[in-house]
Amino acid sequence: MNARPEHSIGEALVGLLEAYGVDTIFGIPGVHNIEMYRALPRSAIRHILPRHEQGAGFMADGYARATGKPGVCFTISGPGLTNILTPIGQAWSDSSNMLVISTALDVGFSAQGRGRLHEMISQLDAAKSVTQFASRAYTAQDVQNAVAESFSRFASARPRPAYLEIPLDVLGQPAGGGWNAATMPLRPLASEAQIIAAAAKLNSAMRPIIILGGGAQGAGYAALKIAEALPAPIITTVAGKGVVPSHHPLVWGPRLMLEPARRLLLESDCILAVGTELSETDHWDLNFAITQNLIRIDLDQGSLARPHSAELAILGDAADATSRIAALIRTRKGEALSPPPTVDMPLRNQLRKMLTVIREALPQDCIVASDMTQIAYAGNEVFPMFGPRTWLHPSGFGTLGFGLPVAIGAKFGVGEKPVAALVGDYGLQYTLNELGTAVEHKLPIPIVLWNNDALGQIRDNMVEAGIQPNAVTLLNPDFQMLAKAYGARATRPENLVALSKAIAAALKADGPTLIEMTPTMVGI
User: Fold this and answer.
1) Do 467 and 390 share a domain, yes or no?
2) Which CA distances in Å does 81 have to 76, 78, 308?
3) Structural domain boundaries enclosing 440
4) Of 145, 266, 316, 409, which is most buried with the most CB atoms under 10 A?
């Protein structure tokens, strides 16, 4: 696209995003960014109006996680940016591509403390704390360069958010020419010498184990070929859940949080870790460190160097490197290591009953966006998933309110493919207003709500720590009436059979359905 000289920078920006393949923008227009909305009515880009900037950010994150394409947001200066910083932080910690474009105060009036509307000392510094790339534009060329660099990183580097701010007096300037999409680079490929060395190490191992993280989304098929040939078990992180199907006999699923699994890793003579930081929120043991027999494949140079010592640190595309290693693995007879047992916890066992019913009621290819809630923590371990980009959970930042808007964003991204949300009573109230967005667009999302009238996990943590539980119970609203007030369907099944029927009906509805579960359903 070549913008006519009389087009403003804000107007030309929309055409540029379209040239980069953007088909959806999540955002809220305000007095400071309406120039970015001038060209949207004649653009092929679909604009989604959420009820809060936090909702916009989470929707963009859900869109990105479900599709593999960058999620894009428009926001305003000041509170627009601060509202969206939380979902940007979640996307940063969980490796999700998001481009947030915000306005800023005029160049001549920035950070002067004169009481200007939406004034901040430095929006840019705030954004830098949770992005891989943050830029401030002063000219049309700056905007073009920043968008090009953002999409270049999306195409070739570890997925992470990017941020661009455009001052108000720059946004309205004539655009000029040059508004064309740049040619994108490819991801780096691992060296042949390292591929050969990794295959040799795996071929000679007696107790090999494979770990797949969120960065292994395209590497599942090759990882299974390696696992079946050796044979070797596959552990996934929560972010890697679904990269390989949970029902495969060699797939242990997310077991890193279990001490016996970590012990087996330390006893292994070869660990192949693909697309994972192996961070605290993967294993929940600050003292856990792998110091030998580790092969790492990652796009992030930093992750290859910390916090575990890799014998082979392979910088490159996970799908390519894993596939090339698989081609060199010799098939041999033998038995893989046996999986460690799951933790036997009464509440977890009761929640498992619900999760089993939910899993059977949902199609195998359904995307599930889960929140920070006890039923989702149980689901991280025991809820089977059968394909990549299907279990969306706020692993790193651990943000309450994630589930509903992420499910909405995912649904906008995948169209007819089914999407469900798994949320808790407290976290849902962070972003409950986005029910309005789902109703407006007639999204048939089952919103499965675990309502125990408490911050249940925090209460249990207090008990374990010898603290008298306090500030962990709440007076909830009538969720049934509240959902119906938004125009959504709502139901409170009396038993597990009714729960299954409610989910089946919700998948066929012409809008979202809130399905409220309580402890009495399973005798808790």
Assistant:
1) yes
2) 6, 6, 35
3) 346-522
4) 409
Choose the final residue of a domain: 137, 171, 205: 171
Binning pLDDT at 50, 70 and 90, where does residue 346 land? low
Q: How far is CA 95 from the centre of its chain?
A: 7
How long is the chain? 524
If asked whether residues 198 and 83 sit together in one domain, one would say no
Whether residue 474 is found in the same domain as residue 376: yes
Query: Which single residue is written with the structure tokens 């098939």?
Result: 331
Q: Structurally, how many domains does the chain consist of?
A: 3
Tokens of 497: 């059979």
Q: What gap in Å lies between CA 352 and CA 327, rounded to an integer?
A: 39
Residue 102 has pLDDT above 70, yes or no: yes
H or E segment to which residue 162 belongs:
strand 162-167
Q: What is the pLDDT of residues 79-93, one digit of tens each?
A: 999 999 999 999 999
Q: Sheet containing 234-236: give its strands across.
A: 251-253, 234-236, 208-212, 270-274, 294-298, 312-315
Whether residue 231 is preceded by a cis peptide bond, meaning omega within 30 degrees of 0, is yes
- Please choose, from the candidates 445, 438, 440, the residue with its C-alpha nearest in 3D space to the C-alpha of residue 417: 445
Residue owning tokens 């962990």 = 472
Judge if 373 and 508 occupy the same domain.
yes
Q: For residue 288, give every residue at least 6 positions away whose Cβ sits within 8 Å of its Cβ, in sequence order, or none.
A: 262
Per-residue DSSP letter, 373: S
Distance, in Å, from the CA atom of 381 to the CA atom of 370, rounded to the nearest integer, reads 13
User: What is the CATH classification number for the domain harbouring 280?
Assistant: 3.40.50.1220
Query: Percentage of the chain surpassing pLDDT 90?
Result: 82
Which stretches within 415-478 are classed as H helix?
425-431, 435-440, 456-464
- Check whether residue 146 and residue 294 sit in a common domain: no
Do residues 21 and 159 share a domain? yes
156 by Cβ neighbours in 10 Å (0-12 / 13-18 / 19+) ranks as middle
Residue 97 DSSP SS3? coil
Examine the domain organization and report whether 512 and 440 are in the same domain: yes
pLDDT averaged over every residue in the chain: 93
Structural contact between residues 330 and 201, judged by C-beta atoms closer than 8 angstroms:
no
* 423 half-sphere exposure, CB direction, 13 A CA radius: 31
Domain co-membership, 220 together with 357? no
CATH number at residue 34: 3.40.50.970
Residue type, 485: A
